[in-house]
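User: Hello! I'm new to structural biology and keep hearing that structure can be predicted from sequence alone. Could you demonstrate with DUF806 family protein? Please show me the input and the output so I can see what each looks like.

Assistant: Of course. The first part below is the input, the amino acid sequence of DUF806 family protein. The second part is the output, the predicted structure written as tokens.
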Amino acid sequence: MSILTDAYNLICAPNNPMGFQENFVFLHSVPEIMEDDTKSEDAPILVKITHLQNARSNFASNHSNSLSTQVQIQVWYNVDDALADSYDNLLNDYMENNSFYSTDASYIAKDPDVEKLYLTAKFRKTKF
């Protein structure tokens, strides 16, 4: 299983502390219209997981013995969302508890196209 799929499965897990639902979690791109005909800008929350980088290391006999993958997780949510002030910490703690470690400073900004905030965070996981 790829590390990107690992991240997706974690974010979609029913016990994730952010309460993300699988039908609002996407790999690489977010559709304009959801399966239930909801426009993406009308969805209460959206999550996009993107593959950023693979780095191979621990070479022996010209073969790598580890793969470190970096993923980016973006979360769009309403300003008045009950967890708005907590998503950054909840996401970081949850991912760290599952062997994904922050690789860059996360940030929260207002989306210029829709009336939502979005959190961007990057994580790395290594498989040996």
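User: So the tokens describe the shape?

Assistant: Right, they're a compact way of writing down the 3D structure. Reading them back into a model, for example: The chain has a mean pLDDT of 91.
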